Amino acid sequence: MNTTYDLIVIGTGPGGYVCAIRAAQLGMKVAVVEKRATHGGTCLNVGCIPSKALLHASEAYADASSHFAAMGIKVRPELDLAAMLAFKDEGVKGNVDGIEYLLKKNKIDAYHGLGTILAPHQVQVTPEAGDKQVLETKAIVIATGSDIARIPGIDIDEKRIVSSTGALALPEVPKSMVVIGGGYIGLELGSVWSRLGAKVTVVEMLHTITPGLDGEIAKQLQRTLKKQGLAFKLGAKVTKVDTSGKTVKLTVEPAEGGKAETLECDVVLVAIGRVPNTDSLGLADLGIETHNRGCILVDHHFQTNVPGIYAIGDVIAGPMLAHKAEEEGVAVAEILAGQAGHVNYDVIPSVVYTAPEVASVGKTEEQLKEEGVHYKVGKFPFTANGRAKVNRTTDGFVKVLSDAVTDRVLGVHIIGPDAGTMIAEAAVLMEFGGSAEDLARTCHAHPTLNEAVKEAALAVDGRPIHM
Questions:
Q1: How far out from the chain centre does Cα 433 lie?
Q2: Catalytic residue (choose from 207, 301, 342, 446)
């Protein structure tokens, strides 16, 4: 093949396909290389999208089982797990088919196979069947995402010891499940199986769940999940897993040393995080610099130390979030087109899709203290919000942190119903350098959950109306 592309993107997850589409919009001739049979990466195939489908379905099942009667709706729900998994799969197919359509619409050539960088302007594609191809290009963007982090000595078979991938496709509801890791992946998938009937225990090495979240929010989330039936063993580590019997036996020890105990369960979910997926790219042969468990080093323009090779998303520093990768994909495409692509890393929202949801943007209170920033706090509980009251979704609160001198909003943290949607107005405000006063004086529709955000902003100055 004699075609020389302006850009080849390796990986078609949220960062990769968005980068390719934006580059095509800017007039470049673009190709993508994807090792899966379908586009969308981990996120659409075995991550964000299928997990949200199961979270939605399991929450509906839990509501029908426990909450509908209080609203005058009498039903006796019956779980059809196979149908629920089919519901999930249908949603995944719709999304990945949509990406394939968008690539074709934007005249992007798609190659399926393992992508390896032979030289700064050459990418080799090795399909599962057939001959290898070598593609020529002016620039390469690495967008290969991340893989599950593994625990030495614990083999994941995706049956009794599962990763997040296996936890999306269990053929039956286990009687008991141990989740190793108290981050968002473990809590979300643990919540799914807990709602469907499993007894779930979360084991976390740290003394708090959801590391990196605002501490007050994390404590509230743990209390709420505990009320829902999840058990927690914090400050603990799993040192051994025995699968020789009918049940899986885990040896659990205090992280700081002490007496061990044994936990038994049907399924173990290993959810200790993710690592950059770069093994097959040929980085070492090219001399591309990496650090921190394989994370690719890039400059402010997302370029590696090898000119012409760029990287975005989970393979570089920063939070491993799909929307962060998307923003970087757009930015690098615009930089390659001679524009001023940019990502504001101070305004990257994050969401934990438990029930209630948790959403954050900006600094936590702990970070502000560590940085010596003088700040003010405004909080407002959903128990005092009219919409939340009538819907009986009052768990949680909104927390606004602003600079004590300038009143500029430095962080917003929400635990409550639909927090992932509500955080958007905080992100917009912060993108424009807005103050708590700006947020407080913005008219919010009534009755909405978002009024709690306005009230928290009012509380920064000690003047909430409904509390």
A1: 25
A2: 446
